[in-house]
Amino acid sequence: MFAKPLADIFPCPPAGLDVLSLDEQRVPQHVAVIMDGNGRWAKKRALNRLNGHKAGIEAVRETIRAARDIGVRYLTIYSFSTENWKRPDAEVEGLMNLFAKTMLAEVDELDEEGVRVMTIGDQTRLPVDTREAFARAWEQTKDNPGMTLVVAVNYGGRQELLHAVEQMVQAGRDDPSFEVTEEAFARALYTSSLPDPDLLIRTSGELRISNFLLWQIAYSELFVTDVLWPDFDRYEFLRAVLAFQNRSRRFGGVK
Ligand code: IPE
Ligand code: IPE
Ligand code: MG
Question: Which ligand is the nearest neighbour of the Cα of 49?
Answer without folding.
Answer: 1
